[in-house]
Write a structure and sequence with these properties.
Elements: E1 2-5, E2 16-21, E3 23-24, E4 27-28, H1 34-46, E5 56-59, E6 73-78, H2 86-101, E7 107-111, H3 120-134, E8 156-160, H4 164-189, H5 197-210, E9 214-218, H6 220-225, H7 229-235, E10 243-249, E11 257-262, E12 264-268, H8 288-303, E13 309-319, E14 331-333, E15 339-341, H9 349-364, E16 368-373, H10 378-383, E17 388-392, H11 395-408, E18 412-414, H12 419-422, E19 432-433, H13 441-450, E20 458-462, H14 485-493
Parallel strand pairs: 1-8, 2-6, 2-7, 7-8, 11-13, 11-16, 12-13, 15-19, 16-20, 17-18
Antiparallel strand pairs: 3-4, 5-6, 9-10, 10-13, 14-15, 17-20
Helix pairs in contact: 2-3, 3-4, 4-8, 5-8, 7-9, 8-14, 9-13, 11-14
The structure holds ligand BES and zinc ion (2 copies).
């Protein structure tokens, strides 16, 4: 689907050639192809094009009648005035994908500008990510009868690069990350009647068949034996059993161990504290944290890093009302023995995560734990759809995550934790209650989880605002974004270096 070539653009015979051009001061950096440069000059003269970021024009060059081999479409994309960074190349990639989608072109070649100050592998990595993520479509349940549906989809992208070996390294990183994000988006796009807790288990088993990963899927009887009272309570109202999927990547060496935990709530109706109807269908996305951590394991399985072990745990269930559902006021006992008074059955994510965190910390003794969850509506109120909420007991881990998010175009914003928030969770009948009062809802949710991780450096990412409807960008489609996959992968890739 994506490859690096040294074929000169002038010799390319596919469907479309794409030139990325920088706007340097008021002019455009000179393009190596004279006829393309002439066309750019004309477009500038007409006033239609200035090379501003995201600007595009497509034209159909004359083809020599005796030699019909030449490319039939040329797309020029502006990169703006600023020195390009990783995000700019990703966005350019996304613009390529969305423009190509509107044409019949299937095979394209991309020519990146040479003078950018960025290393070739970084450029290619980000371009590849942008094109592949922008090209993402989920059409499984479309029967193909809607004429409005765009059917275009790039089949092959070749990137022209001078330093082939370096570019190939970057392309591989971009391809692995984009494949993982696409897999996370696929899981999230699946409706809750097709993506159940069992499917998380099956996905984990599939990963272990394909890659050097170990999987264990705990079923309802295992979960009962382990006394995971949170996961069982949330599952009580559902007709389908819970699972807990554990995927391990081991180097066999004495290296740092990172534990990832993702909320796998396949549908959150709210339970007895039922949600209002509007927008409830979006609660099929309440498993995006779980999807993201398993997708990261796919990427880890492909990359086989030798500098750290990575373990992912996904507790999965639906949250449904019903005669046997958990009720407000019920007291439950989590893995490890802590008791919780369930005040609101809609604050269920923290209940299933509490068991997974307590179990994961005890069993694997990790050096760091990161959980990812669509946990609170309050984070959307506070940060909108533009930043993931981050809470952490460890400044170094928080900084690493913020840096990784920034490199990926997935910004994080840190919120505090502290005893004043934890105090809001005091219960009169149990060790804790599962909600605070109406204030600081994102932080009290984090403070609840904190009670289950002991002293291990831990970070919590509340992705309720970013897992779908994330900041509109050329490479982020409507629907699930796959947020967190690239940030966590980047964190793992850079772990030893920081
Ligand atoms: N899954 C929701 C959080 C959510 C809300 C995610 C909106 C994405 C968009 C979570 O389980 C929930 O319902 N949280 C409650 C907590 C409250 C009862 C303290 C919420 O945020 O309203
Ligand atoms: Zn809920
Ligand atoms: Zn939920």
């Amino acid at each position: 689907m994506i490859k690096i070539v040294k074929t000169k653009p002038a010799e390319y015979t596919g469907d479309m050639l794409v030139y990325l051009v920088r706007q340097i001061k008021k002019t455009i950096s000179k393009c190596d192809n004279r006829s393309v440069q002439e066309m750019i000059d004309r477009a500038i003269e007409s006033g239609d094009f200035s090379g501003k970021e995201g600007q595009t024009f497509l034209y159909y060059p004359e083809v020599d009648p005796d030699n019909k081999k030449g490319v039939r479409r040329i797309l020029v994309i502006g990169m703006g005035k600023e020195d390009p960074d990783r995000e700019l190349f990703r966005k350019a990639g996304g613009t390529i994908a969305s423009t190509v989608k509107k044409t019949k072109a299937l095979n394209i070649m991309v020519v990146a500008p040479e003078t950018t100050g960025m290393a070739a592998d970084d450029i290619v990595e980000c371009l590849a990510e942008g094109v592949l993520l922008g090209n993402y479509q989920f059409k499984k349940y479309k029967t193909g009868n809607d004429p409005e549906d765009e059917d275009g989809c790039i089949k092959e992208v070749v990137i022209f690069a001078q330093d082939e070996a370096l570019a190939k390294k970057g392309m591989k990183r971009g391809r692995i990350a984009s494949d993982a994000v696409s897999v996370a988006r696929d899981m999230a796009n699946e409706p809750a009647n097709f993506w159940t807790p069992t499917d998380f288990g099956e996905f984990g088993k599939e990963l272990a068949r394909k890659y050097p990963l170990k999987v264990k899927v705990l079923g309802k009887s295992d979960i009962t034996k382990l006394k995971m009272g949170g996961l069982l309570a949330v599952n009580q109202g559902s007709a389908i059993p819970p699972t807990m999927t554990i995927v391990e990547y081991r180097t066999g060496k004495k290296v740092p161990k990172i534990l990832l935990v993702g909320k796998g709530l396949t549908f959150d109706s709210g339970g007895i504290s039922i949600k209002s109807g509007s927008g409830m269908h979006e609660m099929k996305y309440d498993m995006c944290g779980g999807a993201a951590v398993l997708a990261v394991m796919q990427a880890i399985g492909e990359e086989r890093p030798n500098h750290c072990d990575v373990i992912a745990i996904v507790p999965a269930t639906e949250n449904m009302p019903g005669p046997s559902a958990v009720k407000p006021g019920d007291v439950i006992t989590h893995y490890g023995g802590k008791t919780v008074e369930v005040i609101n059955t809609d604050a269920e994510g923290r209940l299933i995560l509490a068991d997974a965190l307590a179990y994961g910390v005890e069993k694997f003794k990790p050096d760091a734990v990161i959980d990812l969850a669509t946990l609170t509506g309050a984070v959307v109120v506070g940060l909108g759809h533009h930043r993931t909420g981050l809470m952490s007991t460890d400044d170094r881990l928080a900084e690493k995550l913020i840096a990784a998010g920034a490199r990926c175009g997935e910004p994080l914003w840190r919120l505090p934790l502290g005893p004043e928030y934890t105090k809001q969770l005091k219960s009169t009948v149990a060790d804790l209650k599962n909600i605070g009062n109406r204030t600081g809802g994102t932080i009290t949710a984090g403070a609840f989880l904190q009670e289950f991780v002991g002293d291990v450096p831990w970070a919590h990412l509340d992705i309720a605002g970013t897992a779908w409807d994330f900041t509109e960008k050329s490479y982020i489609p409507k629907g699930p974004s796959g947020v967190g996959v690239r940030t966590l992968l980047e964190l793992v890739r850079h772990w030893k270096r920081s």
